[in-house]
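Fold description:
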Amino acid sequence: MVLEIRNLSKSFGGLKVIDDLSFSVERGERLALIGPNGAGKTTVFNLITGVYPADSGRVFLEGGDITFMPSRHRIRRGVARTFQNIRLMQHLTVLENVMIAQYARGPGIAAMLQPVGFGRANRWRQEGRAALADAGLAAYADELAGGLPYGIQKRVELVRALLAAPRVLLLDEPAAGLNRLETEALHEALEKIAARGVTLVIVEHDMHFVERLCPRVVVLNFGQKIAQCAVADIRSDRRVREAYLGAEEHA
């Protein structure tokens, strides 16, 4: 397996947000982490990536314990993510934003700031432009990120995550706020990413999107795992219907 969450717990004040959570992800798998709002899904991502320290439990990446590793070191070990709320640097260009990921996996920010034509910085610019072109975003490379439409910003954030060269890519509600065409383009992009061997772990409320992309799901409710099964089986699970699907299907 590439990622293992073992007996993970996290509290804020007196509120236990994640409660003795365990699950694993196989190399190359596409796994969805689902559940109602407030179930703790984003907190799990924050624990995996080191945004929050765990109160107890362990996080393993390719067999190595990364529980107490700083976030930047986890990126270099092969974990990257996108965010539920877009976190692009609004005052930087699209190209500069995606180059941040290259810095995160490299030795230091000074190299990124060298003038064009100097060593690593030039290679990073070329790599960034190539990645944007591959994603159909070449025309936006020199535009400020803050002035772009929401859907384009979401695509830029995905390119940035990929330029960190992840083995495990965590996607926090990637389809949220996208229209039908944008959602279809996202699905096609993620299929291509998975085909390259990148492991995907996705938090997403769009169950149609989840069912098309992810063969397996882990379901959370109040920080606890209530189900772990094939995506085709979740609608027959009474606990999942009561906690999550039932409310949606009868809305």
User: Anything to note?
Assistant: The beta strands are 3-12, 15-25, 30-34, 56-61, 64-65, 79-81, 168-172, 199-203, 216-221, 224-230.
